[in-house]
Known about the structure:
28% of the residues lie in helices and 22% in strands. By secondary structure, it is of the alpha+beta class.
Amino acid sequence: MKALALAFALALACASPIAATEATADDSSEAIIAAAQAAEAANVEMRAEFGRASLSAGQFLWKEGREDEAITRVVVDLTGQMAYAYGGEELIAVSTISGGVDKHPSPIGIFPIVEKRRQYWSRKYDNAPMPFMQRIDEYGVALHAGHVTGRPASHGCVRLPRAFAARLFTATEIGTPVLMGKPAILVELRGQGYDV
Length: 196
């Protein structure tokens, strides 16, 4: 038995290591500005791609024939309460959201999806259901299906319409970046004379 354990340990030691490509969260000022700029640009792209300037609470649009395409990044506009999903550089889906309220704000910056669970219940908030949960930070903030009012209404999570959350869940992977932006920050900075 000792010989078998030694052989197994030796085999593991000689095996080539698997490269770790795990992305990390970035809430630096540069990431916060980049996420805000991405959210601002996504709103302009929505008008060009979908011919719409806004959606009603709980509404989403997904390009026909693109439902099974991999999503390479998600941009969340916490000012406008919208989410934008990209396949490569092309905007292929948009949705209304409900982000965090002032007392429990959603984080801003760039965050990778670090965990995915089709069915999940909140450990912090009375076992509240969080279907199609995609966690983006170590505090439990996630994208998930929930009641979407079109205004901030969560404890920091990004609530999505159920059908949109289900499609997004199947189209993303662990590590897919989520840019959590507040374009209102850019308006404030520009008002102070900054070129952002």
